[in-house]
Amino acid sequence: MRRSLTIIGNSLKLTLQELKVNKLRTALSLTGVAFGIFCIIGVLATVNSLERNIQNEVKSLGSNTIYIDKWDYSGGPDQPIWKFRARPVAKYEEAAMVKERAVLLEDISFLMQTGSSISHKDDMLQNCSVYGIIEAQMVLQPISFDAGRFFSASEFHNGSNVCLMGFTNAEQLFGNSDRALGKQVDIKGKKVTIVGVIKKKERIL
Question: Which of 69, 110, 120, 177 could form a disulfide with 197 if both were Cys (CB 3.0 to 4.6 A apart)?
Fold first, then answer.
């Protein structure tokens, strides 16, 4: 028993001496391990937050609405991501085909989502969600406005460079929603004019 304790004690002593001698290597190793752990925690937190947000958005559409996407947002560690990634992306033309063939369908909307920075002069907002929608989006999920209006039929038809902005983004860029109306912002290299600011606590488009 004493022999075992002596061996353990000597091993600990040698380990501590090794750490003292190689302080730089020890510091770099600990830093690398800590950084790796923080990265894993950050990625998991981001993925979980994204899943919760999407699930809440789907729930807000109501129980009589079907949401179709290539991804499965039910969550869980055993999701076959590689299968979802291989699925084709929905096309705008397919939405019209579904509407023609469906018997009980009241209406259908097509939505695209991407991320981008939004800037106005020298002010910029990073990592904003940008959505592309069609006219029927207002039918499926009515939007309340703090200022301004929804897109007009002619703006949809002509593909005008106009946008709606969430209340928080408008407040951060312009101070208040009224000042945002009519202003031009840069999104993915294009200048678009703000015609409406979505009411606070509504879904930000």
Answer: 177
Write down the residue that tokens 């085909």 correspond to: 97
Asked if 167 contacts 198 with a C-beta cutoff of 8 angstroms, the reply is yes
Q: Which two three-digit tokens encode residue 53?
A: 């947000």
pLDDT for 145-164, tens place per residue?
A: 999 999 998 998 888 999 99
Domains of the chain: total: 2
**Is 141 among the domain residues?**
yes
Q: Which domain holds residue 173?
A: 110-198
Which residues are bridge partners to 125 per DSSP?
118
- Contact criterion met (CB below 8 Å) for 174 and 141: no
pTM of the model: 0.59
Integer Cα distance of 115 and 184 in angstroms: 18
Taking CA atoms, 171 is separated from 41, 123, 127, 174, 177, in Å, by 31, 12, 16, 5, 6
Instruction: Let me know if residue 172 belongs to a domain.
Output: yes
Between vectors from CA 114 to CA 110 and to CA 119, what angle results, nearest 5°?
125
In 4-144, the DSSP E strands lie at 112-120, 123-132
